[in-house]
Structures are given as structure tokens and as C-alpha cells.
Amino acid sequence: MDNQDGKTLPELKHQGAGRWLQKEMMTDYYRALSEAPQKGEPVAYLFISGNVGELMRAFGFHVCFPEVNALQCGIKHVSPQYLLRSEDAGYSADVCGYVKNDIGLLLSGNKTSFAQIPPPSLLVCNYAGCTTYIKWWEALAEYYGCPIFVLDSPYNRLDHIRREDIAYVVGQLKELITVCEEVTGTKFDPDRLRETLELARQAEELWVKILHACKHSPSPLDAYFEAVFLMAPIYTLRGTPQAMQYFQAVWEEIQERLIYGLGPVPQEKFRIVLEGPPPWPKFRTFWDMFKSWGAVTVASTYSKVGGLWDVTGRYHDPDNPLESIAEYTLNCYVNWSLPRRRQLLLDYARDYNADGIVIHSVKSCRSFAAGEADFREEFSKELDIPTLLIESDLIDPRYFSDAQMKNRIDAFFESLEHRKYVAARAA
Length: 427
Ligand code: SF4
Known about the structure:
By secondary structure, the chain is α/β, with parallel strands linked by helices.
């Protein structure tokens, strides 16, 4: 095996560990989730963004993320049947595809190739930025006849989190603790929560080191196409020893790549920042369109949907348990104002030495799509940052045209190539 300088490498010890372990952990996660009803164990449904998984785990809940179930269906190419099933039930084409996948799955018996999705014991609507969350959980509460708790996180319009907003969310977390005690019959154990938060903090710090490694050139990791897989345990299993050990193993893999100059493509030619969710049913096809140009994503926003620890520097904190959970829920990407998101993209482009920004705008998700066309106009026309805006969907393959997408991506990299050529001649 050769690195990007063509040097023959010694035997590598850690390559592939992250991917292999991720698959194993997600299999175990779904097995435990499937078995929860037979074992009489409680299940809490949560949203990824700003989730309070640590608190739920401290009560012995299994945490279930219908968004993750939906993306699994997308990548396994079974989402169309669930989208059509929910459309038959009256959900319009405009509704978020994750919602329709979940409702269609529910109406089809909740049996997938990767799990039997259990019914919720409690629906926790950690409402942070996306208005769809509330209506989705209301529909599930009606279908399942299950209690629902809405945790309201005020939208973040400033460049910092206000103390009164933290206090407001902490007050709601105390109410949630009472609800969890009632649903599980388990008394709240602050020490158990602290242990969970300490494990979460360690995993988060390792994940940030992994993401920051992409500042190196060549980048050892694709911060979108690889990161969206590697990140799964930071949401589904955060707060467990397994998740912390997993990120330690991924960090060793990345360190080995740094030592030997390895990266996700044989030769890194372009460094890009990518905004927006992936088109899960076309994931490989989409990635190949970038790889064929030697393009590597060095920073992305979708890999931060569950946490912006890399830029806020704020982690879950066992010494300030409820306050740090509150701050985390307030600080998630879709809860940030558009000016903050705009600045984040610009900061990523500068800090990671990117050649351009690619915005993948998805039909389903207004939380992401809002403002993206304006970003593109400003970045490319006023700031002279090459910016490509492409559109499809995160889960509905009917909105992805292979030929059109390839044409747009090829044209973008051709222009980047020309720009580099002109800059080199002028130097
Ligand atoms: S609209 Fe976007 S953020 Fe909201 S549920 Fe759908 S995919 Fe998630």
C-alpha cells in the first residue's frame, strides 16, 4: 500500500477499525432496542439535535432515534416503500421525508432488516430549531397512545447562549426527571447521570480531535462522507463506555493516517466545506462524484447536527450536569440563527483552507434549506468564494437525478481547476 507521496507503507494496525466497529456497535444497538419490549425495558424516542440521551440513560431507557431509523432505511434503499405508504395515508409530498419514512414504517409494522423498532414508553420532543419535531411527535403520541414531553429550547439569535435560557431549560429538565421517575418507577440517581456525562464528555473530546485533524493537508478524513458514518455512536450511544472506547479507536486510526500521510482519496486535489444532509439513498454515487475529482470534505455542518463541540468548546460536564445538558440542547446547529450558520461556513472555509463550499440543499428539510440560496449568492458573488448549490433530498430518491447532479459537480470542479491554474500562473 502507498501513501499520497507514493511511498510504500509498513503494515498498518488501525485502518478500517472505525468503520468495522461502527457497524458492530450499531448492530448491537439495534439488537438491544429490538429486545427491549420482551425484557420489559423502557424506550424513549428522541431527536438527534440537542438530545438528552444521557439523562434518559440514567433512568435505564433505551434511546431510539426515528431520524436514524429513517436514514438507515434510506441507505439500505427501502425508504421508497415507506414514503409511499405514508403518502397513501395522506401525508403530502412536501412533508419531511424522515417523518414520512417513520410513519410509513410504523404503518407497515415497524419491522426492518436491521431491527424491530419498539414502541416508545415516552416521547421526548427535544424541540430545538425544527418546527416539524412537534407535529411529528404529536402524530406518534396519537398512534402509540404514549406520553409526550416537550422540551422547549429557545432559538439562538445571538452569538452566545443566554443564562436565562439555560435556566429555562434546566427548569424543564427537572420536570422531565419527575416524568421519567413516573414512567420507569426508578428514582433519579445524580451519580449515575454524572458517570454518563463523564463518558459523554470523553467521547465528545475525542470526536473533536478527529474533526480538527482535517486541518492537516492532506486531510486524513473526509469530514462529510466518512464522518457521517463514524459519528453515529456520538448520538446513539453517547454516554456509554462503548462509545468512548470506539472514539478512542477511531482517533488511533486517524493518527495513523496522519503519520503516514493517508487520506480518503489517493491524491487530494480539492478541499471543500459541505453544507446540508447527504442524499442517503444515493450516498455512494454522490461520494464518487467528488472522489473522481480528488475532492475531500474538510469540514461539514451535517456532521455537527448533534453537537457543535468543535466550535463552541462546550462539553457535557459531570460537575454541572443539568446546566451542561441545557447548554448542549440550545447549542445545536439547527437552533442557530442564519447569521451564525453563515459565519460558521465562512470560518470553516478559512480555518480548514478550503477551495470552495458545496451546499447540498434537500427538499425535505427546511431547517437546513432556509437561507442556503442566499448564502450561495453572497459567498460566490460578494465574497468571491467558489460556491456550488445543488438540490435533491435526504431520503427520497425521486428527487435525485444522477446525470444532472454529475453535470453540476463536474462543472464546479472544472471551474475550480481553472481557478487554481490561473492562480498558479499568476504566482
Ligand atoms: S425537517 Fe429537517 S431537522 Fe426537521 S425533522 Fe425533517 S430532517 Fe429533521
